[in-house]
Amino acid sequence: MENKSSKIFGIRAVIEAINSGATIQKVYLQKDLKGNLFSELNGLIKEHKISTSFVPIEKLHHLSKDNNHQGVVATISQIDFYDLETLVNETLESDKNPLFLLLDQITDVRNFGAIIRTAECTGVNGIVIQSHGSAPLNADAIKTSAGAAFKVPICRVDHLKDALFLLQASEIQLVAATEKTENTLYDVDFTKPTAIIMGSEHRGVNPSILKMVDEKAKLPLLGEIESLNVSVACGAFLYETIRQRL
Asked: Alpha-carbon distance 54 to 71, whole Å?
C-alpha cells in the first residue's frame, strides 16, 4: 500500500497541489462527479495530462481511510521525475557509452521495482516510462527496488515514441526485447550506446515501437514455458550488456 502521506483528499486540495507544481501520480475520481469546482479540476487534469481513473465511491473510501475526500483522491509521487532531453544531453557529456532502459507499459509494481533495482546495479543511466498505462512509482515499487528508485534517474513521457526519436537523434541504438525475431541477445552488439526496450507483461513491446528499433533480440528458451518474467528477462539483457562492455 502507498503511504498515507503520499495521498491528498478533496477537490480543492488536489487543485492546489496541481497548481503548486506537485508531481501528481494519479487522480481517482468518483463516477458522475459534477459541479464548477470539479470542472476546474478536470480542466487542470487535462492540461497537465495527469493519469485518472473513475472509480466507485467505495474505492475512494478505501484510498482515503474514510477521510472527507469529496469524490477525489490523488496520489503524489515520492520521486521527482527527470526531464528526458536534459538527462540524455547530460549523460552524453559525461558518459561516452550510455545505457538507457525504456519500459513499454509494464503494469506490475513489483516487476517495476525489481527492474529499477537491477538497473541501478548495472549502471543504467536512466529509465523511461510512459505517463499513461504504466505501473505507478508508489511505495510498493520503491520498496521492491530496495531504494534504487532514489538513485536511478526516471523520466516520464507522454508518448514512448517521442523518447525513441530523441534517443535515435542522439545516435543511441534501440534494442527491443521480443520473441518476434530469430536473433538472440547474444547476436547484438551492446558495446555501442544503447537503449533497451522491455515490453509489458502480457503483450510485449508494442508493434508500432518494434517498427522503429534498430535491433530485435530474444532470450533462448530451452524449456516448455514460452516466456520469462519481464524483470528476469530485463536482468538478462542488462547483464549481457555489462558482460560485453567489461
From this structure: 10
